[in-house]
């Protein structure tokens, strides 16, 4: 692990993960670097990742989607925005004018269908199928990127298990029916620049296990340091920004930090980013390593609670959702 003189976040070299048989020492060294980064700022840059996609390939997927005509994007918009559409959780969301979240997005989940554990009357079905516009030419690419990011995240999860003193397969149950989300984001240019629109992504923590973020060259990402100062996390060529989500922070007994981050507007410029939120299955019971016999929390419930605070899901009312309470109730093995 190294820290560039101009960067406040560590760079972690993942070269050994591209090898079919990485040495135990190499894996232990990455595990240690991740542990140090996640126990302090909660953020790091990953370099020499095993992805087959270049930075340009990834942003092509996003540009192609956001250059579709508005009507085409609306055809896959979530029900919250286009009431006649059936998709509630996957799909397109438009930019919310007048908020600190001036971004439009397109979200996809796994290609394989997930067990339908939500009440069909629920306002948000977290395990619904993806929706695609026939005019979007990059569906195969987006599905392939999803699969590679899921694979990389799974490897990182094993390394986090080791960092917590557990065996490499300790968290493997999280991968059953994992409902990770690949999100293509476009922050439209603010013209004319407005002093009121200082932020285009409001300060927040992510909700899942970890997030792998590709950002373009525009800059603007900021991370709250341990001394409560916003530090820039600019684009580093060829890197992925990684950070811990609330869930993993809880699982680690607070050892790993879910750090606040935000995006500062770049006057007159548009920006693209592609976060991948690595998540367990909705029916996964998640427990802290410090309380392995405890009741734990059902991941699907954790997400709905978190969603009620997101601008894209303003109408989530967790109290009114027919949310399952126990694993038995939703009929899924933990
Ligand atoms: O666009 C970015 O760089 C960050 C996006 C983000 O933090 C998120 O979508 O959770
Ligand atoms: Fe985030």
Structure explained in plain terms:
This protein has 334 residues and is α+β, with helices and mostly antiparallel strands. It has one domain: Jelly Rolls, CATH 2.60.120. 23% of the residues lie in helices and 19% in strands. It contains 7 helices and 14 strands. The strands form 3 sheets. An 8-stranded mixed sheet has the order 1-2-10-7-12-5-4-3. β1, α1 and β2 form a beta-alpha-beta unit. Residues 316-334 have low confidence and may be disordered. Bound molecules: 2-oxoglutaric acid (AKG) and fe (ii) ion. Residues 204, 206, 211, 261 line the site of fe (ii) ion. This is Fe2OG dioxygenase domain-containing protein. Keywords: Iron, Metal-binding, Oxidoreductase. GO terms for molecular function: metal ion binding; oxidoreductase activity.
Topology:
Layout (H helix, E strand, L loop, with lengths): L10 E3 L10 H16 L3 E5 L7 H12 L3 H6 L15 E3 L10 E5 L30 H25 L17 E7 L11 E6 L5 E6 L5 E4 L5 E3 L7 E5 L1 H6 L9 E4 L6 E8 L6 E2 L10 E2 H9 L19 H4 L4
Parallel strand pairs: 1-2
Antiparallel strand pairs: 2-10, 3-4, 4-5, 5-12, 6-11, 7-10, 7-12, 8-9, 8-11, 13-14
The chain binds 2-oxoglutaric acid and fe (ii) ion.
Fe (ii) ion binds next to loops.
GO molecular function, one term: metal ion binding
Keywords: Iron, Metal-binding, Oxidoreductase
Family: Belongs to the iron/ascorbate-dependent oxidoreductase family.
